[in-house]
Amino acid sequence: MAETAPLRHAQTVARLSLEEKASLTSGANFWNTESVARAGVPSIMLTDGPHGVRKQGGKADHLGLNASLPATCFPTAAALAQSWDVDLMERVGRSLGAEARGAGVAVLLGPGLNIVRNPLGGRSFEYFSEDPRLSGDLAAGMVRGIQSTGVAACPKHFAVNGQEHLRMSIDEVVDERSLREIYLEGFRRVVQQARPRTLMTSYNKVNGTYANENTHLLVDILRDEWGFDGVVVTDWGGNHDRIAGLLAGNQLEMPSSGGVTDRRIVEAVRSGRLDEAVLDRAVDDLIALALETTSALEGAEPVDPDAQHRAAVDTARRCLVLLRNAPGADGEPVLPLPDSSRVAVIGDFAETPRYQGAGSSLVNPTRVDDALSALRSGPLEVVGFARGFHRFGGPSRRLADQALALAGRADTVLLFLGLDESSEAEGVDREHLRLPADQLALVERLTRVHDRVVVVLAGGAPVELPFAEDVAAILYTSLAGQGGGTAVADTITGRHNPGGRLAVTFPMRYADVPSARSVAAAGTFPGRERTAEHRDGLFVGYRYYTTRDVAVRYCFGHGLSYTAFEYSGLDVDLRAGGGTVRFTLRNTGDRAGREVAQMYVTPEAAAVPHPAAELAGFASVELEPGQERRVEIAPDGRAWEYFDVDANAWRRHGGPYAIRVGASVADVRLATTVVVEGESGDGGEGGDQRESRDRGEGGAPAGAYAAGDVHNVGDAEFAALLGRPLPAASWDPGTPLGLDDTVAQLRHANLLGRGVLGLLHTARRVLRAVRRPHAANNVMFLVNMPFAKIEGYSGGKVSKAAVERFLRRVRRR
Q: Which ranges of 43-195 would DSSP assign to H, the alpha helix?
């Protein structure tokens, strides 16, 4: 462990009683920390969110059920990532920080940067990408922007929050190399590039230990290796064992537990189980955060909502991705539409946009631009609007017939499709990758009678697009925030040239997703009961599709423009720290536009398993027609390294590397091969010949996993990859339910327990039927809750003893 620095506020800490110290490490209420006025320790407010300030003025909650004060709703992380623009992230961060500061918020809980391992993950809209480099660099930009205002940023959720189902108890089982290279690398980048002042732990376990108590994550890696010196805060209700959390380096439990955990800390210190010096250090860090942010908030004024809205519109424009733009009858691409084009606007989402996800990040927007109004105020001739389908599903022949009749009066059909508000939310994963059946049926009918159907698609994560080749164009908005409607109209009409690129792959079908299935039932997504096994390891997203040559609908990094770009003059200069790749980029079209140039690397003779492509750097470049520019991408040393589990260290691959530069992982424009020197002691041609559990005899990669065939990684191979026996994946029916089990596991209880669970599921179905998706998702939050957390979540109103009595009553006899 790194040498312990002296306390920054030793005199203040010395003035505090043991009880006061304990109280400072837990919330005063839902959003505020405790204060000790006599010692000059102020209370501060922590508030969601990652794409807008969710400050609740009345009753507080964690899932966006109760209204918050109006604030600017920027695009969600999934949309922001499609900009591939670090400078834009800084500007968004400054806007968020200024708004938080004006509202008296000291800590803004965001950005979220967990890996989008599986597109069905319910919180995918709140995360950037399937790639850790892109996620980390964008998150670092946002953190720098937020903290430039004096407000503290809080990247989350550390670490491996891969699913919402049973998120408070699931054990994410992942090998150490994949943990370091995929799931932690983004956090490393944001910690070392932007120095966030706080960081939030995830609910789940990581390899058997709750993330908030995981000394390997919080001490060995976060603090000792990366040098993090800020405050670690639990997710709301994410405390499991307060003493273990303090020992692992967590300083703040949120929200208030009503004094329950304060008493446990006091008892632990007095009994000698917890060294008071550990508590003192946590309190010192909290005092520093409170004093610094309180000082930064002095003199803050509210922001101009009109200026903020303009910033939201501009941000949304840069995040839209043109997935398809086929030629029309005249041979020219359908988009952009010429002025005075006669268009039929169809789809409920045109009038009532889907612009953000549900849950703790739910923002109460200051206003919302809808595409229908924006199109009507623009140069196009809108011949009419038809809803076309029921937003929450269910066939309607009448609505579909109205849409077809309207389509017959127009030159072009603008068809707005998407996922509804109940489909993507914190606390619950999606059940499939399909759009609603009524929307798919409408597309089929429209494309049979009209050859110029332009789909505008809303949603926070990929969906299957079986109609992709049948429509003229597809514009993907993701969840574009309150300015998305104007951004869509500007893009369709050509006032804005789309420059967004996909940050998550669109697969052909869900079965193609690397974590979708496995030879072992426990390997499927999501983990159903005790564990979520990462048998896909390193082969997440495009890393899998490129390695196994699996066809995808739209690849990672894909996005079209209304102009064209030419690449030339590749030059590579390698250095020990990383190197520099230079090339010339020229706009060969007649419109100004933005290209996102991407660099991928592949070791050609690696002695350990390795994906066929990994993003090593990128550049967002804006060019006028005919303009050219020399572009530079400078990958850091991590581009040539892998994590050696046996050595517990990063090692540099030696040998030949393929370097590819282009417009996406599949659209390669320039390529070359370079030789990278390995570290001293490497055997043969600079290659690494260390023994490793990744290799077979002779040092060569072996087995299904080494070939990226992750759907066929069996128990023995996965156990070998982990370096330990597999943990039990399901509940043992011979074991009585305990505090670490969840409400969902009442299905294993007696008739009383199963009846309680049945009532909760019935309540959820009723709430969904009456179109109260947020309330329905709150029920799932309760279903997935471990019994041990009920006391804390109720503020002690339901005691641990009462919960244990209930568990005794529902046990099978």
A: 77-80, 86-102, 132-147, 176-178, 185-194
DSSP 59: S
Q: For the residues 292-313, what does the mean pLDDT come to?
A: 96
Contact call for residues 397 and 94 (beta carbons, < 8 A):
no
CA 750, CA 730: separation in Å to the nearest integer? 18
- Contact by Cβ (8 Å): 81, 128: yes
> Are the CB atoms for 89 and 110 separated by under 8 Å?
no
> How far, in Å, are 338, 387, 482, 498 from residue 474 at the CA level?
17, 19, 21, 12
Residue 629: its H or E element: strand 628-633
Residues 634-647 have pLDDT tens digits of: 999 999 999 999 99
Over residues 464-506, the pLDDT tens digits come to: 999 999 999 999 999 999 999 999 999 999 999 999 999 999 9
Helices (H), 723-772: 751-769
Cα dist from 436 to 459, 572, 664, 769, 775, whole Å: 12, 48, 29, 15, 21
Q: Which domains does the chain have, with CATH numbers?
A: 10-56+68-297 (3.20.20.300), 305-496 (3.40.50.1700), 541-692 (2.60.40.10), 743-810 (no CATH)
Q: What is the mean pLDDT of residues 605-626?
A: 95
pLDDT tens by residue, 436-449: 999 999 999 999 99
The values of phi and psi at residue 670, to 5°, are: -135, 145
pLDDT band of 576, cuts 50, 70, 90: low
What residues are labeled active site?
235
